[in-house]
């Protein structure tokens, strides 16, 4: 059977008016000439069965001769579904996953040639991909063995977790539901997973597992049954059984395993049940409490302590973010139990988190150190990655709240179908606009009285109201879109007035100094604090309070390499919200194990817990950019430093929607 890519190649040869070289074929199809040659070998074998042959002429190219009509008819009858479309022109990451599906399945060992044929690529490509396969397996405690034959070795526990991770990377929750329900649309998914789980009866499993728990637990149970049916059982582990016996997760695991035994006739040992109990704990999703007050006292204290750290480091008001507090508490509940059972969480996205959310990851490392002291357990890097996602999510929420999305109500009386089309087009054209309702002109007054709104978009004439009104066609023309954009730009401009002070409001020529001389960290902090005092923003005692805070709590104010942000409490002498920046001629040491020495000191004087946060968030964007810090360090004078700072802040701000001229 020809896979989809080879069918495309054969179609191209049949349509060609003359010979085509492998390089030309590769350019037309979008993959290397070397891979084209492997595909041509398969095509040559296939067309022989239909009284045709593939001719290769050196220096000329490839062409077909013989009964080409018979080849065309046979090609038209080939079912594409036998080999799903994603079997061709795979990305390197997709190829790694396909190889893993084969290696972790029951077949093997595998030859390099066979893997290349299954993927439709050259052997050298597969050989290169094996490096990614090896790295993926190593993170999960498994070893890639290349000779004799390509195979995987490792413990049964690690093997099952790897299979679970792989399925979870390939499927989302909706696709898993389709498999368990036996939907016809899931045929391609079954084909994809067949090398890994060849004997699984997904609908039969669905009858038992549909309500067993979250997707990862369902997939693990599926993998467990597949491995046990193939004779791969967990070795006895009396200590694990003893640790979990009698817990709520053991009781839950016992019920599920008993039902699986009854349905599929496979005996599940006490160790198998104990491992299921561990998975139940690891994937347990407790119902979200209504408020932070519903958490236990110890949970509330811990997440508050972590939130204070995050807020200090990022400037994001997470102590007032109920989503952050609740979600973090619920995440930590099973993690402590999991680590207490010596189970290491698997985080397949760790490398991406480290690279994409580096500032959040640095904060998460500090959170992990607090947890290690609190729990008396080592926190692995995989868990640090999960903590970083909570921090990153809080930062994104804060940014969205800073630029509150405008809200629009749509007035349309042209019928349900037309109004829904208009609603869909508005959402597509303006993802930054909250459009949730379509009402009639008669309902508009009541809706505006009940719900906050910034803009009315209407398909009919309306009586004057206090809000901007844009009349549009029910089919939303380009002119309509332009006028809505212009109105949104005007709204954005009016909203920006009267906001809390930003970074450029606080750092002025009076509160910035360059090439200051300080011999110690105390002198450096005092130099920055004295600028606040001279500007009338703080009393002299505030400088002493900053010094005392560092002496008592240590060099936590050194937030990134070379930068310290000392501060104290508002009641310690702050008169007005202020910030001062001092660039030192010679760096000083605060005693930080990683970020010393320091040459930029930024003193903050806050009057409350919120008004300084917009400026602090802008400052954090500067601090996480090595290029921006280099600009500040190389500025020849105060004026140049402020100009470079302004360019950075302006460049990082959200670009307003430009007004469009009306046609």
Task: Name the strands of the widest sheet in spatial order.
Answer: 9-12-13-11-10
**What's the end-to-end separation, in Å?**
57 Å
Low-confidence segments, given as residue ranges, are 79-88, 652-663
Using DSSP, what is the number of strands? 13
* Biggest sheet record: 5 strands, mixed
Helix content: 55-70%
Structural class: alpha/beta
Question: How many H/I helical runs?
Answer: 29
Mean pLDDT: 81
Relative strand content: 5-15%
Rg over C-alpha atoms, rounded to the nearest angstrom: 32 Å
**Which geometry do the CA atoms define?**
globular
Describe this protein's structure.
The protein has 663 residues and is of the alpha/beta class. The strands form 4 sheets. The chain has a 5-stranded mixed sheet with strand order 9-12-13-11-10. The protein has a 4-stranded parallel sheet with strand order 6-5-7-8, sandwiched between helices. Strands 1-2 form a two-stranded antiparallel sheet. It contains 29 helices and 13 strands.
């Amino acid at each position: 059977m020809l896979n989809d890519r080879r069918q495309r190649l054969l179609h191209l040869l049949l349509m060609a008016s003359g010979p085509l070289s492998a390089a030309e074929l590769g350019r037309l199809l979008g993959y290397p000439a070397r891979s084209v040659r492997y595909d041509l070998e398969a095509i040559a074998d296939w067309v022989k069965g239909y009284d045709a042959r593939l001719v290769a002429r050196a220096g000329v190219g490839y062409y077909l001769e013989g009964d080409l009509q018979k080849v065309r008819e046979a090609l038209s009858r080939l079912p594409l579904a036998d080999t799903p479309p994603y079997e061709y022109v795979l990305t390197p990451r997709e190829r790694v996953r396909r190889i893993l599906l084969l290696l972790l399945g029951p077949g093997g060992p595998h030859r390099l040639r066979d893997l290349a044929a299954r993927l439709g690529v050259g052997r050298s490509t597969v050989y290169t991909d094996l490096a990614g396969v090896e790295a993926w397996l190593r993170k999960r405690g498994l070893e890639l063995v290349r000779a004799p034959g390509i195979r995987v070795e490792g413990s049964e526990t690690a093997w099952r977790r790897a299979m679970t991770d792989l399925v979870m990377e390939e499927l989302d929750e909706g696709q898993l539901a389709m498999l368990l329900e036996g939907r016809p649309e899931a045929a391609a998914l079954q084909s994809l997973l067949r090398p890994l789980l060849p004997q699984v009866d997904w609908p039969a499993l669905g009858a038992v597992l549909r309500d067993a728990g979250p997707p990862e637990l369902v997939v693990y149970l599926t993998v467990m049954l597949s491995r046990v049916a193939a004779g791969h059982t967990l070795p006895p582990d009396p200590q694990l059984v003893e640790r979990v016996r009698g817990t709520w997760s053991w009781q839950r695991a016992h019920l599920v395993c008993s039902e699986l035994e009854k349905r599929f006739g496979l005996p599940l040992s006490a160790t198998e049940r104990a491992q299921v109990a561990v998975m139940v704990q690891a994937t347990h999703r407790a119902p979200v409490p209504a408020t932070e007050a519903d958490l236990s006292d110890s949970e509330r204290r811990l997440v508050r302590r972590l939130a204070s750290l995050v807020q200090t480091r990022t400037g994001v008001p997470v102590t007032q973010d109920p989503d952050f507090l609740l979600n973090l508490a619920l995440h930590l509940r099973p993690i402590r139990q999991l680590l207490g059972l010596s189970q290491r969480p698997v985080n397949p996205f760790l490398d991406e988190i480290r690279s994409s959310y580096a500032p959040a990851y640095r904060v998460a490392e500090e959170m992990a150190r607090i947890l290690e002291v609190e729990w008396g357990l080592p926190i692995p890097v995989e868990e640090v990655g999960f903590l970083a996602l909570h921090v990153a999510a809080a930062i994104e929420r804060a940014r969205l709240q800073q630029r509150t999305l405008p809200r629009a109500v749509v007035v349309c009386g042209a019928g349900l179908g037309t109004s829904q089309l208009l609603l869909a087009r508005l959402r597509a054209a303006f993802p930054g606009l909250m459009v949730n309702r379509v009402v009639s002109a008669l309902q508009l007054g009541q809706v505006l009285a009940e719900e906050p709104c910034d803009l009315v978009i209407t398909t009919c004439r309306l009586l004057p109201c206090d809000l901007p009104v844009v009349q549009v066609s029910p089919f939303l023309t380009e002119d309509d879109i332009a006028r809505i954009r212009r109105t949104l730009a005007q709204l954005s401009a009016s909203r920006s007035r009267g906001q809390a002070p930003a970074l450029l409001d606080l750092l002025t020529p009076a509160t910035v100094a360059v090439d200051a001389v300080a011999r110690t960290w105390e002198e450096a902090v005092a130099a920055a604090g004295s600028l606040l005092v001279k500007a009338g923003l703080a009393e002299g005692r505030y400088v002493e309070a900053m010094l005392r805070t560092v002496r008592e709590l240590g060099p936590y104010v050194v937030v990134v390499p070379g930068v310290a942000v000392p501060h104290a409490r508002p009641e310690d002498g702050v008169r007005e919200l202020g910030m001062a920046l001092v660039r030192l001629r010679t760096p000083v040491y605060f005693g930080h194990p990683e970020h010393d020495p320091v040459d930029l000191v930024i003193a903050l004087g806050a009057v409350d817990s919120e008004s300084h946060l917009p400026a602090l968030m802008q400052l954090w964007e500067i601090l996480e950019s090595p290029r921006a810090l280099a600009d500040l360090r190389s500025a020849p004078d105060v004026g140049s430093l402020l100009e470079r700072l302004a360019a950075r802040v302006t460049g990082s701000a959200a670009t307003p929607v430009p007004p469009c001229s009306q046609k």
